[in-house]
Amino acid sequence: MFGVPKLLLTEAQRQLLKKPLGELVVGTPSECSRKIKEVQDAEKPRRLILVGDTVSRNANQFGIKPDVMIIDHKEKRSKAVEFTYEKTRVFRTRNEPGTIDLLAWNAIAEAIEKGDSVVIVDGEEDLLALVAVAAAPEGSLVVYGQPEEGVVLVRASREMKNEIRRIVDNMQRAD
After folding, report:
1. CA separation for the pair 26, 42 (Å, rounded)
2. What is the DSSP letter of 136?
3. Nearest to 67 by CA among 143, 10, 13
4. Is 69 exposed, middle or buried (0-12, 13-18, 19+ CB in 10 A)?
């Protein structure tokens, strides 16, 4: 991806992002999946977007059908436990750790727009939760894992999208 613009996370932002962006749900995989399902049934989000292999696998095993999954085949920096999923569209992109690659952003935006998609990331998908919230229509729900705790539910409201925009606008640019 030589010459592709990307955004770099600063150390200050790294500390800021250790705090969950939305509602932290603490519990076992089944308790967290149950909560995702409850929120999905009650709020009927415009898009349900799962970020991370663990969250996606657990939700899939619980019968949750997201519109988009963003995975990198890793869990806690190790090879992820494989799982099967049925998605019409598969997007492949690259994203280095600690960055947001413009091509990854575009792939996620297209996947969210079309739905019924999986985005497979060569590299790391952690920061792509920010992209998912930014690209999701208002009224969507983005879920990502909070290691050793549970999951974070982020509602893509105007206020949250503005907060994400502030974070992204303050990232360092690299070409």
Report:
1. 19
2. S
3. 143
4. buried
Cα–Cα distance between 118 and 3 in angstroms, integer? Answer: 25
- Look-up: residue for tokens 């999701």? 136
Domain 22-170: which topology?
Pyruvate Kinase; Chain: A, domain 1 (3.40.1380)
Cα dihedral 26, 32, 36, 41 sign: negative
Farthest CA pair distance, the chain: 45
Task: Yes or no: say if 132 and 100 are a contact pair by the CB < 8 Å rule.
Answer: no
Provide φ and ψ at 150, rounded to 5°: 165, -130
DSSP assignment letter at 171: S
Q: What residues does each domain of the chain span?
A: 22-170
Torsion of CA 39, 45, 51, 57, to 10 degrees: 60
Q: Residue 5 has what DSSP assignment?
A: -
Q: Which residue has the tokens 């690299």?
A: 174
- Look up the pTM and report it: 0.93
Which residue has tokens 């999923």?
A: 85
Give tens-digit pLDDT for 56-67.
Answer: 999 999 999 999
Q: 7-56 pLDDT, tens per residue?
A: 998 888 888 888 999 999 999 999 999 999 999 999 999 999 999 999 99
At position 169, the amino acid (one-letter code) is D
